[in-house]
Amino acid sequence: MMKIKMRDKLRKWREENFRNSEQIVDVGEELINEHASKLGDDIWIIYEQVMIAALDCSRDDLAWSCLQELKRQFPDSHRVKRLAGMRLEALERYEDANKLYDSILQDDPTNTAARKRKISILRAQGKSSEAIRELNEYLEQFVGDQEAWHELSELYINEHDYAKAAFCLEELMMTNPHNHLYCEQYGEVKYTQGGLENLELARKYFAQALKLNNRNMRALFGLYMSASHVAASPKVSAKVKKDNVKYAAWAASQISRAYQVRRVREENVKCSAHGITKAVYTVAMVHNVNIIHL
Amino acid sequence: MGEVELSCLAYAKMYLHASQFPRSSVNGLLLSSSPAGAAVCITDCVPLLHSHLSLAPITQLALTQVDVWCSQTQQRIVGYYQANACVSDSSPTPCALKIAEKIFEQCNNAVLLMIDGEKMFPGCRVPPIVMYERKDARWALKDKHTIMLRQWEETCSIVNQLFSSGDQTLLVDFDSHLDDITKDWTNQKLNAKIMELISPANGNV
């Protein structure tokens, strides 16, 4: 692969924050070995990117050599110190890593990278409640850190604390109103919490996610399922029932269409479409509503 | 309790699934194409999720889809597997227990299988799995001697072959299917490749 192509690929992966570590190591290692002298100042950010990818692939040899180059060039840098800490984490030398991060924080208490690494260590050690506590404290100070809010929502979901996960996602939706993934995840959390009110909310957020991205299959299925459940609830009025049966039918037809449009003919798709149609007719029959099958 | 036999096909796909997502928890369903009896023969598996395992909608959707597919292909859901993101902790999570309970309602010798990440390295002599069965209203560790993996050496070598040929990337789980619905979560292509590798002499797998 040409040097420029390789460099551009690495840049793209860096900018989009992809974690395709094996590929980064493949391309990066070749680029460093063959073309280091011709990369100019780009080389340093590439060393950093390749080092982190190397840690992800247990390539300590490669990580170590990248780190040496960076240490030589930037001897007192906190950024490089953090990379050294990450290498210690990869080797599961968590105490040593923590000492390193603490020394960074002594020098610079506002260093968010070091704080986040400490929280990552807690997560790696399975200390979820402590990680959650530290992350909450962090967010009190750095309330705009999207990555941290998302990490916290993940931690709460793992701990089955859906109400708090929903709160984190609400923060994310407020600051990222066009992000269909947050809407869809919020819908999933509300659906999981259960109960009529939450199911109706879930349906609304799945619908919102679809407005933002009409190809989001999870949102489509989510809309179908939440609308079906609301329609089947004994507590709703006839009108609400009718409306939700319509929403569910619409979602079902969109799902069938999506599978047909992608021209997928294998067994599993036939069963997906069949399963959905079967379920929709059941809901419709129970509520005496005519479904116009699109 | 009854014996459980784990086929090469099921084991290989579970292993590949866990390897494909080393930083996440993954889960899936264990299937059997044998008739119900005292012994459980796990002949295949369906990899399900690699994110948000404890959220309900996609799990429910996947269970329904797999159910429908099983009834069309004369298979039954006989168990559930999970590999935790945290390698040092292979104990069943509340979500694993919940899903296993649901499966137990339909299949009274259902198994819960946890993959032990710490034993997933090349050359490990012991299968990286821990099995649980329903006993006295709770999930208890199964006696290792009632778990059978026929042709263990051959199974290991087949898994290695899949990695060296790059075929492990063929594995599709339900999550990946939702990201791109042209991908086949029943893994017909990968199944065929694995069946090819299984020696013709061993008709049982």
Large-scale geometry of chain B: globular
Average pLDDT confidence of chain A is 89
The span between the termini of chain A is 49 Å
Topology, number of strands of chain B: 9
Count of helical segments of chain B? 6
Proportion of β residues of chain B?
Answer: 15-25%
Number of helices of chain A: 15
Oligomer: heterodimer
Coarse morphology of chain A: elongated
Distance separating the two termini of chain B:
22 Å
- Briefly note the structural class of the backbone of chain A: mainly alpha
Mean pLDDT of chain B: 90
* Overall SS class of chain B: alpha/beta
Percentage of helical residues of chain A?
A: over 70%
Q: What letter string, H or E per element, gives the SSE order of chain B?
A: EHEEEHEHEEEEHHH
- Assign a percent range to the helix content of chain B: 25-40%
| Biggest interchain interface, per-side counts | A-B, 33 and 29 residues
Low-confidence segments of chain B, given as residue ranges, are none
Give the ordered list of helices and strands of chain A.
Answer: HHHHHHHHHHHHHHH
Protein name (chain B): ER membrane protein complex subunit 9
Domain MPN (chain B): 4-138
Pfam families (chain B): UPF0172
InterPro entries (chain B): EMC8/9, MPN
What does this entry look like structurally?
The complex is a heterodimer of chains A (294) and B (205). With 294 residues, chain A is mainly α. Chain A is 78% helix and 0% strand. Chain A is built from 15 helices and no strands. In chain A, helix 5 runs antiparallel to helix 6, helix 7 runs antiparallel to helix 8 and helix 14 runs antiparallel to helix 15. Chain A starts with a helix and ends in an 8-residue tail after the last helix. The relative contact order of chain A is 0.04. Chain B has 205 residues and is α/β, with parallel strands linked by helices. Chain B has 6 helices and 9 strands, in the order βαβββαβαββββααα. In chain B, strand 5, helix 3 and strand 6 form a beta-alpha-beta unit. In chain B, helix 1 crosses helix 4. Chain B is globular. The mean pLDDT of chain B is 90. Chains A and B meet through helix 11, helix 13 and helix 15 of A and helix 2 and helix 5 of B. Chain B: It comes from Cyprinus carpio. Chain B: This is ER membrane protein complex subunit 9. Chain B: InterPro entries: EMC8/9, MPN. Chain B: Belongs to the EMC8/EMC9 family. Chain B: Component of the ER membrane protein complex (EMC). EMC8 and EMC9 are mutually exclusive subunits of the EMC complex.
